[in-house]
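How a chain folds remains the central question behind the approach discussed here. This step matters because it turns folding into a mapping between discrete strings. The sequence in question and its structure tokens are set out directly beneath this paragraph.
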Amino acid sequence: MKELDPIVAPEGAVTARYTPSRIPDHKGNPLIEALPPTLEDDAVLRALSSRPRFNEEQRSWPTSERMNMLSSLSRFMMPLQQQVELFYSLENMIRSGYVGRAPRTPMHAEISQKLYDLQHSGEAFDQLMAEQTPQISTALIGLSGMGKTTTMKRWWVRMKDTIYHSATNTYQVPVLHIELPPDGASVIGLANSIFHALEQRIPRSDYVRTYTKGRPNAVTMILNAVKLMHRHCVGLLICDELHNLLNAKVNAQVLMTQLTNLCNTTGVPLLFVGTNKAARFSGIALQQARRSTGEGIATWDRLVPKTAGGNGEWEDFIGTLWAYQWIKKPVPLTGAMRQMMFESTQGIIDLTIKLFRSIQIRAMLNGTETITVEFIEAVYKRDFKILHHLLDAIRTNNLVLLAKYDDIRPVDLDRHLQQAWLQHENLKTPRHSPLPDDMAFRVSVIEALMNMGTPPGLAEEAADFVIAEGKAKTVRQAVLLADSYIEKPPKTKPKKKTSGAAANVSPEEDPKRFDGNQYDYRRAYAYAEQDGTTVLEQLGLLGMAPAVEEFLVL
């Protein structure tokens, strides 16, 4: 198509610039020729790649700065086969969906007439459209933490939010991203999501207020949403949180049917995105949504080592990631380390990156500044405790256990990183510099250990052991020794000196030992051990864990 004279687009949009296409079905279509050209293989790999700005000199930086550099690993991305395939599938879907849909063409007018007739027929949208052949639609399902959303964002960031075509006074929205309603069945909620998403893309629009005033019914609202998508030439509708469909108490098919019919009517390609939980939705509508004109997308699974039948991507991924070591004594990746990393994360990308970060944080804090197989295992046991049952279920392919988990949610190790950094900085301040014979010394050591994520009882135990040894001269030294104690406690531990009848009585043997202090939470640990109950239950009985209702304003 001949490029138009430059005209300044309204605020919030870019003026269309056209790249002529040689493909017969695409040639002369302004909606397609206004899109950025399809990337070649090398350019796709660059678009999907993200690496930290790393050099070996950074290993000599202060600990606090090296910890900050570790944050950049959260953006680490290495192109994998399934990511490249998704990139190309999205490129094909949006262009195929635009064929014949250009403004002022017969097909565009036909769709407009069909929507007009529907609005005045008074019949249900899904009844009239049920006989149509499904258009380009598919589903992207897989484990959380494998890069589905990140890959999609890296693709659609190339597509401008809104493109203005001055020749037809048309706003084009290449990609519209919405989340399915939490209840999994609200057609009104679906329509509202489309109104909100388009209102953010179209300058000076007020679609939410315009199309929801007077409390219209669901059929009217979804028809208005479809009309707006057609008017603004939406190229691809991405429906995230597909697993929300399972929350529908009745008529679980309704929302899926409406979405499928929406795309049948307008020709807008549809991509459903969800975790493995969504695979349990096995209705007819989802089967229709999985059909596509050559745009089938495989379910995303974890990376698997070659020895377990993988294609080598796990070895490539961990080998590339391993180069980003900010510790002072970096080590090469051995086969045993690679195997331990896999056993600890089961090839889930997000967990692998976060474990690698956590390992380096712990190595910096305990002063070892290096990595061993044993250290990887110790950090996994300590920092990934909340995920042990889930990873064990994946490791053993225990279907009974896996049924208890709808999906895998990435752990929030950023909080651990922040706590560790604060702990490192706080130990430098006067507040954390009491001497060993000062009463505040023990409190400072316990506080620092708890900031690192150590449970209160274990923090006290480790602090008391280190103080009894008498080797630590500063709080920082005591914290490092206590951290080593926690990782690998000695077989025999010195007991605190006591006198009288209670000299040889442990808290477990005599819980009333702590009754002199009303707010001594050690009583909860002692009573829980004695009675075979949980610490939380004992805290409640002791009045130290109020019910959540006490904090809610009903």
Observations:
- DSSP finds 24 helices and seven strands in the chain.
